[in-house]
Every structure is written in structure tokens, then in C-alpha cells.
């Protein structure tokens, strides 16, 4: 006997829950009474300082709001994030999802532990936040929707929309995604880039009927091709049937000569917004769970900081140069003469001043572990052979032996390009040691 669609969806959601529960170290922490009784408006009303509303610069306003929120919860029960690099990628993803599926006081102190790695301090937190955003941006290896790799957002750059997967919706994974987005914002992490402006508009309580939707916002190329048929004045009988089949499946009328443009707009709005309303509502709930919602709704100018466009993620030489703390003569590092120090730091300055935005982003990732500028970038002159970095201490270590800029540039470019490969090999080696 065949099963109904709702039954199949419930089974898919149950399978996701079973997949998440397979984690060998799944946290069994019970939900505390305080977390159970958490009322977002009450938590927000505890904030005595509202000066962030009056600060003109959105970046500074966000900074003050987050500092206030973290200060209010500084004595709360710490959140503990733990990951073992020797585990498989799927197991590490499962650990993250299990953590964010729990109800927590997300503004409490955050303690991050990376088992099987020597990284310490802020570098570990950066690793976690980078991993979280990478999974949201590029997908999970876990097959949570029966489609192989799990993408929570799909589509073209700057037109990404929540995936239209019933299994993901039934499993409340977009609320999990909202918590992840809010948590990384709270701890100055990186951000998901390239969301559709229409989705952002609706997410922050904009009228769906007033959302500006463009064809590129429709991630389903088959549906997009049908909607694009309505851009033509004359349709063949077959094309009319194709369009009418789609419109009537969405409770819209069949196409006629007089409603062609109206139907085009309605179909496009439903394809982009109508099919993602439940996902958007879950994202909204997740952001509210982390208690950053007052900031985002009271200060609309902060929203682009949370959801920047890909084209806006541009790094300039000045942005990096003004953050650099250059080596000084009386430092405790290895002794190198002034000429050597000036030559090598001059090579780095030349590299930065002539690099593209993309190359600067890669250099920053090599330097500190992600594409986010820290308060300070440190440079050391070393006796090594190739450029290296200590991401935990935001320090770039440059060998002193280079005499020509061409040799320096070649070595630094190679180090940057090999950074991800080297990181992957470290995980492989750690896994092999753990198995042995």
C-alpha cells in the first residue's frame, strides 16, 4: 500500500533525527529550566543600556549592542563547543547540528575545544565560526534531504534563497541555521554572503507582496524557464499548457493574453518567496533565539553587515596595512639586522599594495584563519625556509633569506594556495594516528 505525502515527509524528518543521533559523542546535556522558560522579550528587556540605538555608525552600534548582551550573560552557564578533528567530516557536522538544535542561552560565555589539534585561544573560536559559516554557505556533507550533499541555501551569487526541501523544513533545520547566523554575528565571526535581497526583505518583516524579485532569484532552472516564457508576447499552445500547469498547481489561474504580465510576477514571487516562507520564519526564530533580533530590527543599517553581498566583500591594501604591527628592533624574536627586517617587510608591503581583493582575502585567511580582519595583524621575521602563520596569534612569519621580491612573492603565493591543502592533510594525519 503506497504511503501518503505527509507520511513520507514525517519519515524523512525522522531519518534526519536518526542521522543526527548517530554521533558517538552526542551531548546529553539537559535543557535547563532557565533555558526552557526563556522568553525573548523578557531577556531583551534586561538590557539597561540602549545607547547603541543612537550611535550613527552601524558597525560601532552593533559592537556596543553585542558587548552589552555578552556582559549581561557573562555569569551564565558557559556554552561548550567541542570538536575532534580526527572524526569524519560527517561526525563533526553532526556535533555542530546537535549543539544548535538544543535550546540554549546563546549569549552566555562560549568555550571552544578542538581535540586532536594544538590550536588554542581565539584561534579555536575562529575555527568553529569559520566552519559554521562555511557549512551554511557551501553545504553539509551529511545527506539530510536525500539529495546527497545538503545545501540550506541555493541559487546564484547574490540571489541565494533557502532550499525548498520539505525534509529540511520538517526537521527545523532553518531555525538551526538562524541560530548559527546569530551566534557568529554575536562573536564577530564571518557571514553568509550573497542572499537574495527579496529574502532579506521578508526575513526582517517586510511585506512579501512588496519584495523586489528578479528572475535570477529563482534557483530552480526548470521553473525559471517556464516563468520566462511569459516574457514573450505570443505563446504556442504547448507553451501555454506548460505555463498553465505550473500556475494552476500553485492555485493561480491559467495564462491568458490579458494576465500574462501579472501572472509572470505572481509566479516569480511564489517561486522565490512563497515557497520559502516557512524557511524564512524558521530563520527569524533562530535569530530571535540568539537575542540579536532587537539590533537587526531597530537598526536596519546593520542588516547588510550580517548579510553582505558577495560583490561588497572587497578588501583593499589599506584595510590590511592599517592593522599591521610591524617588527621592532627590540623585539624578543630572533635577531635580524635592520636592513634584513626592512627588506622583508618592504616585500610584504609591496605584495599587499599590488594584490587584488581576492588575493588579499586569501592572504588574510592564511594569516588569521578566516576572511575577517582582527584588531591587529602581527608580522615576524623568522629563520625558516617558507612563509608560515600562527593563526591563533594572528601572526605571519616571513623568512629572512629572500633577496629578491620575485622570490618572496612566489614563495608567499605558494604558501597561501597550499594552506587549505595542508590543513586537510593535518586532519587526515590526525585521523590516521587516532585509528592507529
UniProtKB/TrEMBL annotation:
Cleavable signal peptide: none
Bias-annotated ranges (Low complexity): 24-43
MF terms (GO), sorted A to Z: ubiquitin-protein transferase activity
Key words of the record: Transferase, Ubl conjugation pathway
Spans annotated as Disordered: 19-43
Domain HECT as annotated: residue spans: 160-418
One Pfam family hit: HECT
Protein name per Swiss-Prot or TrEMBL: HECT domain-containing protein
Naturally occurring in which organism (per UniProt): Coregonus suidteri
